[in-house]
Amino acid sequence: MAKVTSKYQVTMPKKIAEKYSIRPGDEIDWVPAGDAIRVIPPGGRAVALDRESQLRLFDQATERQRNRSVKPQPADTPDRGWIRDDLYERGRSHRHQHSGLPVR
Fold first, then answer.
1. Distance in angstroms (rounded) separating the CA atoms of residues 98 and 56
2. Domain of residue 24, residue span
3. Are 29 and 44 in contact (CB under 8 A)?
4. 76 lies in a domain?
5. Residue 92 falls within a domain, yes or no?
């Protein structure tokens, strides 16, 4: 994620710049696209997309997001003898013992 400076400047990630052959001094276009902003590299053209193209791009983005959200499930996780809540409780007890506060 990039930050916007006080001068409204943004640093482009190097991988993106390399992929699109963007070099220092190149001019890029910023095009409003609904709730997003399209960045058009040098030599590119900001073409207004028809409804079918917009929907196709939306479907592709949705599928990419769906694939990102899938987290591999561990196969047969061995029983460690404890669960996450046990660790949280242990941490709370330890904190209270060393703080002088009564343990709940």
1. 58
2. 14-68
3. yes
4. no
5. no
Residue 88 lies in a domain: no
- What digits encode the pLDDT tens for the residues 44-89? 766 667 888 888 888 888 888 888 766 666 666 677 778 888 888 8
Return the H-helix or E-strand segment holding 28.
none
- How many domains does the structure of the chain reveal? 1
> Is 100 inside a domain boundary?
no
The structure tokens 């002088």 sit at 100
Q: What is the pTM of this model?
A: 0.40
Residue entry with tokens 């916007």: 4
* Cα dihedral sign, 82-83-87-90: negative
| Among candidate residues 46, 2, 40, the one with its CA nearest the CA of residue 21 | 40
